[in-house]
């Protein structure tokens, strides 16, 4: 059974799309169920000012993608890295046990997008 909040994020997902000049991009997938997520972030002064996603997957994966972008926006990179699969599931008022793996997609894709941003800074020698 899905919560009303999860159903709202599935039927009215926020932040769908891509950021062409994204500062960081994270991709995560689950080969078992076939869900795949690509997360784009825009950073200003070490704070996430925009986040968008493209997800191929079930309703729970889409809702998680929508929620993770909402949770990340406005956060510092340190704050965003503290977002866990449990906090995403809690923000959606829970996920069925068989769908908890979807919350991993969001948290892991966000972490990878931040890592991508930081690796670009290192390569540019601006850290």
UniProtKB/TrEMBL annotation:
Q: Which Pfam families match?
A: NifU_N (PF01592)
Give all residue intervals belonging to the NIF system FeS cluster assembly NifU N-terminal domain: 1-122
Q: Which SUPFAM superfamilies match?
A: SufE/NifU
Q: Sorted alphabetically, which PANTHER family does this protein's record hold?
A: IRON-SULFUR CLUSTER ASSEMBLY ENZYME NIFU HOMOLOG
Protein's name in the database? Fe-S cluster assembly scaffold protein NifU
Which organism was this protein described from?
Answer: Candidatus Magnetobacterium casense
Instruction: Kindly list the organism's lineage.
Output: Bacteria, Pseudomonadati, Nitrospirota, Thermodesulfovibrionia, Thermodesulfovibrionales
